[in-house]
Amino acid sequence: MDNWIIKESQHYTFHYHKNSIAENMIDEIVEEQEDCFNHISRVLKIDFNIKINYYLCNSAEEVGALYGDNDPCNAFARKPNNIFAVFNEDVKCIGYHEDSHILSYSIATPQQVFLREGLAMYFDKCHWGISNSNWVSYFIYSDKYINISNLASNDEFYKNPWNITYPIAGAFTDYVITIYGIDKYIEFYKVLGSDFNTDFYKVFGIDVDEFEDRFIKYIKELKNDKDLFDSLEALM
């Protein structure tokens, strides 16, 4: 990984290519990511004391090559402190998502992808500019919703489309944090082992299925209309 231009900021070392879109916008990128870093750190109550290496790549193919499998990818985070993301005219994969992975991994790295992506999507708040909760409303309406107990299995999570699993994970995480608070959620994040349902009950005192019923009831009571659902259907 050579031929990178480097720019240091308080919490990051940014790497980007000469004459790239990232080079032209680097000051804006630095400001946005520093804001994201500070917000995530405050919410999760962590002190991350090493700089994050942030590689701003020209294409998904470049990111895939850096990941190592040559499978085109828009972004990924690699412990302990590396982020690789596409930043070009059409795709600008910066913001909260990958940073929340790196920062939360300093607390724990739960084996369940559902929990890890749920926290990242909690910070993102939306997918393709539409709130996670609006997506889940549409999934319920269109019978695309997938139960939490299923998504807690990595095999099931990966088997289903990411544009369904990610918003569900984000909206569910948001609901858990809203009901029980961030401290209780962090406790769950730290202690979670291989049995999602059992550990959920130990920390929150309620079965996942019962809590999910409340979550679905809450989502259904949000006011959405068919025009929105038609728009979301067109994006699927």
- Strand line-up across the major sheet: 1-2-3-5-4
Gross morphology is globular
Order of helices and strands: EEHHEHEEHHEEHHHHHHHH
The percent of residues in helical segments reads 55-70%
Radius of gyration (CA) equals: 18 Å
Q: Gap between N and C termini, in Å? A: 36 Å
Query: Main sheet?
Result: 5 strands, mixed
When the domains are counted, the total is 2
Kindly report the oligomeric state of this protein: single chain
Q: Regions with pLDDT < 50 over 5+ consecutive residues? A: none
Number of strands: 7
What proportion strand? Answer: 5-15%
Number of helices: 13
Instruction: Average the pLDDT over all residues and give the rounded result.
Output: 95
Class from secondary-structure proportions = alpha/beta
Protein name: Peptidase MA-like domain-containing protein
Organism: Paraclostridium bifermentans (Clostridium bifermentans)
Identify the notable features of this structure and list them briefly.
single chain; 236 residues; alpha/beta; 2 domains; five-stranded mixed sheet; 13 helices
Written overview of the protein:
The protein is α/β, with parallel strands linked by helices and 236 residues long. It has two domains: 4-105; 113-234, no CATH class. The chain contains 13 helices and seven strands. The chain has a five-stranded mixed β-sheet with strand order 1-2-3-5-4, with helices on both faces. Helix 10 (182-191) runs antiparallel to helix 11 (196-204). The radius of gyration is 18 Å and the shape is globular.
